[in-house]
Amino acid sequence: MATIFSPSALFSSSSSSTTPPKPPLPPPLTKPQQLIIPPSKPPLTNLTTTLTAAAAAATILTTTLPSLADSPANYQIYYGTAASAANYGGYGGNSSKKDSAEYIYDVPDGWKERLVSKVEKGTNGTDSEFYNPKKKSEKEYLTYLSGFRQLAPKDAVLNNLALSDVNLQDLIGSAENVTSEETKDEKGQVYYVYEIDGVVAHSLISVTCANNKLYAHFVNAPTPEWNRDQDMLRHLHDFPDSLLEPDTVGTSKNE
Predict the structure, then answer these.
(1) Region annotation Disordered: residue ranges (predicted)?
(2) Per-residue pLDDT tens for 114-157?
């Protein structure tokens, strides 16, 4: 631009030769662009498999597996003699002879027998008791009272049982629901069956009369243990079909 508008250029003769224009400069060389190839994505199937395996591992690590001791598969049959307090000669409950037993019930493997004193036997009629050593209030026991030839009405029987059992009184008093029904075993023996759903505990009770005695079998558990062991506790309540058939049942039973 400076060459075109200079004075010497404007007043020069027309005969003078013109300077040929300089050829245009070539554009500056640019660096060749580098082709960037994105990394290939892993196959979707492999990614899905990896995530699934990781989720499964996390589930195994975070899930608490149930203890075999908490949910026993094996049970032992207890043979009870229902001996009077005067004739109560010892504590060897498991040494009861099958031929002298008046009642039977199932006990989970690992549960311990609580030794019942003569005084307790004579006051509230407790004849035998077993408990879970991990939670002693999760237990089963049997009481009996002499002088009963037949069952009174269901409500009267439950109230009479509570008279000699303070814990049962408290459970009934705070219960959210109490159910009762009358059933019979294959031989026609009549049973009253109670279920008490309390705020802090649960109880299953079976009651029947025989041999001029009233037998009551209890299965009790605090609410957390009931929620965890309900199937096992119902098994204790339901087996055997009759409390009074020791001669028709073997010495042990696997569920």
Answers:
(1) 1-43
(2) 999 888 888 889 999 999 999 999 999 999 999 999 999 999 99
Give the DSSP letter string of 144-207: EEES-SS---HHHHHHHHHHT-HHHHHHHHTEEEEEEEEEE-TT--EEEEEEEEESSEEEEEEE
Cβ pair 106, 236 in contact under 8 A: yes
Q: Is 156 exposed, middle or buried (0-12, 13-18, 19+ CB in 10 A)?
A: exposed
- The strand pair at 175-184 and 190-198 is best described as antiparallel
Cβ atoms of 208 and 215 within 8 Å: the answer is: yes
**Count of alpha carbons within 13 Å of 8, Cβ hemisphere only?**
4
Q: Which amino acid is residue 162, in one-letter code?
A: A
- Give pLDDT tens digits for 22-64: 555 555 555 555 444 455 555 544 544 444 555 554 443 444 4
Task: For 76, list phi and psi in degrees, rounded to 5.
Answer: -120, 145
Q: How far apart are CA 131 and CA 110, in angstroms?
A: 9
Say if residues 197 and 218 touch (Cβ distance below 8 Å): no
Rounded CA separation 230/190 (Å): 25
End-to-end alpha-carbon separation of the chain, Å?
108
From CA 40, how far away is CA 55, in angstroms rounded? 25
pTM score, whole prediction: 0.67
Q: What is the DSSP-derived secondary structure letter of residue 93? A: G
